[in-house]
User: Fold this.
Amino acid sequence: MSIWTSLLETLIGFAAGIAVGGGLVAFLTLLGVIPRLIQLSKSGTFIKMYIASVILGSLFGIFMSFADITWNQSVVLLVMWGLFHGVFNGMLAAALTEILNVIPILSKRIRMEDKLLWLLMAIVFGKVAGSIFQWIIFVK
Assistant:
């Protein structure tokens, strides 16, 4: 492999990283997902923990993407891990849909205004079940 090929791969990787990072920053800041999540969960006293969690989670995710590490865990731990992922994804999706008013519009269109709580719970439990399924079937 020549130096030019390596340089081109480095440039493409850097550009892709900038694009993905820009999208993540836009998602987190411009849409106001995390501030809305803090507002909905009434956990404003934990703002520093939210910041640290986003930064450390991003750094850990980057490390795990490049590291050749495998973890052999029990099914019970994978179920708990999947449950935490489902809760996080569900809350993030709920915050995003709350910002964009998707759920109220959807409930009016399918004529389920009186069943809005059940619709939200179905979405949350579906995300949790999907995360558990992914971790048990694909990760283990």
Remarks:
- Residues 9 and 37 are 38 Å apart (CA to CA).
- The helical segments are 3-30, 33-41, 47-66, 75-100, 102-109, 116-139.
- The mean pLDDT is 79.
- Residues 72-140 form one domain.
